[in-house]
Amino acid sequence: MPKARETAVYTHGHHESVLRSHTWRTAANSAAYLLGSLEPHQRILDIGCGPGTITADLAALVPDGHVTGVDHAAGVLDQARATAAGRGLANVDFGVADVHALPYPDDSFDVVHAHQVLQHVGDPVQALREMLRVTVPGGLVAVRDSDYAAMTWYPPSQGMNDWLDLYERVARANGGEPDAGRRLKSWALAAGFTDITATSATWTFSTAEERAWWSGLWADRTLASAYAERATEGGHATEEQLTAVSRAWREWGGREDGWFCVLHGEILCRKDTAPAS
Question: Which among 191, 51, 203, 71 is positioned nearest to 132, based on CA atoms?
């Protein structure tokens, strides 16, 4: 049987408008559900580390341990290394890996973490099986993913409705599942986990500064990122339609009463200590 590998295409790419969002992410605003379980000596694998801001935070929280950050895209790892170096962290390293076939032995890490990863992969259940395999007995797998269909905003906007419909069509055409948050527990059960704590959390953007930042990055992403290219090349939208969606984002961002909420599903799964009979 051929070895499992990534079959999906990463919808967003690594345009500046995408990294603007990714570099905002911290362990506090993106992995709070995990932080209470961390111990100073632990070995952590951070999958889909991107520019490494969460990875660096995790490394600082396990000063006697070690964090390995991996991403499927080699190009973003230079920025991740620079992030860690800029914080003076010596207990972190980075490499390229496919979550469907991780290049690590069984029982290698105390904690395996993935933030906004499973929504973009071709086989999330296989990815979770691999995460389970490389986790030590008694260790934790922590996964958090947004759920696009559950995102909500005010005031109503047909242009924003068009954005959500378009994004979900492009993401699924690329082989991903944009409504991953609600599916995490189901995927974990299918992967063989039995001890699963499922929670949820949100990002909310409502102040003038938050609205300007969130709307600006999506307005730019809609016109200039890999997502925009895949939308037009895949026949999902014309350039004129993308321009209209981008304009809708900026109009929403300029509304004093504007409010946007991103729902995330979260799972914290503990690996069984006894082998299956």
Answer: 191
CA distance 41 to 44: 10
Peptide linkage before 156 cis (omega within 30 of 0): no
User: What are 214-241's pLDDT values in tens digits?
Assistant: 999 999 989 987 888 889 999 999 999 9
For residue 180, how many other CB atoms are within 10 A of its CB? Answer: 25
- Helices 239-253 + 226-233 axis angle, to 10: 140
Q: Work out the burial of residue 230: count CB atoms within 10 Å of its CB; fewer than 13 is exposed, 13-18 middle, 19 or more buried.
A: buried
DSSP category for residue 124: H
pLDDT tens sequence across 31-40: 999 999 999 9
CB atoms within 10 A of CB 111: 24
Residue 72: name the closest of 176, 187, 183, 164 by CA: 176
Place of tokens 């969130």: 214
Report the DSSP pairing between strands 152-154 and 109-115.
unpaired
pLDDT band, very low/low/confident/very high, at 274 (cuts 50, 70, 90)? confident
SS3 80: helix
